[in-house]
Amino acid sequence: MKNLLLVLLGLATLGSMLALAWVLGTPAAPDPRVAQLEAEIKEARRTIATLKRDLEKRELPSLPPSPATPAPAAGPDAAPPPPAAAGRGGLRDMLANPQMRAVMDQQQAMQIEMSYARLFQHLGLNDQEKEHFKKLLTGRQKAMMDTSLKLMDPNLTPEQRQALSQEVEKQKTAFDQTIKAFLNNEDDWQTFQQWEATLPERQMFDTLGRGLFSSSAEPLSAQQEQQLIQLMAGVRASPGRGGNLMGKTNMDPAKMTPELINEMVSQLQVNAQVVEERAAQFLTPAQLQTLRAYHKQTIEMSKSGIEMSRMLMQGKGQ
For residue 250, how many other CB atoms are within 10 A of its CB? Predict the structure, then answer.
């Protein structure tokens, strides 16, 4: 079963939106670059809001009838015009704007810097190696985003949608092979894979969890922090934990229903309960209380992010 990271990785823009919602709604992480990154992200948010308003107000021009097909005469028995294609004014149209794409590219680069900084340090990369690695990760993200945006076209046939889904997997495999060759060390490659497997949990914990626990009466030790991250990732990826719920949509906007969103949120709640029960083996009662507060906030943020994504995928009025 693909974990939620790999599903969202194919939809890089959706991941960026979720991350943006998390970052803007949470305390700053203890990193000297955070103040600058927060300012840049807030500016990106203002740009996104402006572009979205412009797109919502935009009147789509009416297309003249094809010369080979005369326009039908108006009258009481005239057939109604075909419905407008779904998704107009939504995420696909927003990202057709070069300014919006530039904002998203910048946001993705910031995400990669924050998400992989400690891995770069752990691997002992020099400045030149780090920059090359960042380019590989950014290139992977952008390539998969471009392919995944095509999946948002509501007019795709099932065969076309399946072919594009396979293309996303091929792209990821090709980039993974390039990254493995760059690392040129089996231990480093295993470390990278382990990092990827826990990346959603690390991103969320860096954004919110570390600040919550640090300001609590009983902060986590470094060992407890790693135990908790590994536990959350293991629960999410285990069979029957809903890791494939996003995959049910296959990026088809029509399948991103309120019912599926409710199912996804319910699964997050169940997973949180399982994590709390198992974490009782290595957390104190006070730390468990902080963990419950953490889960409450992250689930609310995830729900808001998923609903925002549905709105953007389906377009205005969906």
Answer: 16
Are the beta carbons of 96 and 183 closer than 8 angstroms? no
Q: What is the pTM of this model?
A: 0.66
Check: CB of residue 55 under 8 Å from CB of residue 317.
no
Sign of the Cα torsion 196, 198, 204, 207 reads negative
Strands (E) across the chain are located at none
Domain extents in the chain: 4-56+87-314
Total residue count of the chain as it appears in this document: 318
- DSSP for 51-97 reads HHHHHHHPPPPPPPPPTTSPPPPPSTTPPPPPPPPTTTTSHHHHTTS
Residues 71-118 have pLDDT tens digits of: 444 444 444 443 334 444 455 566 667 777 777 777 778 888 888 999
| C-beta separation of 17 from 199 below 8 A | no
Q: Which tens digit of pLDDT belongs to each residue from 199-237?
A: 989 989 988 899 999 999 999 999 999 999 999 999 988
Long-range CB contact pairs, 176-181, < 8 A, 24+:
178/136, 179/133, 179/136, 179/137, 179/140
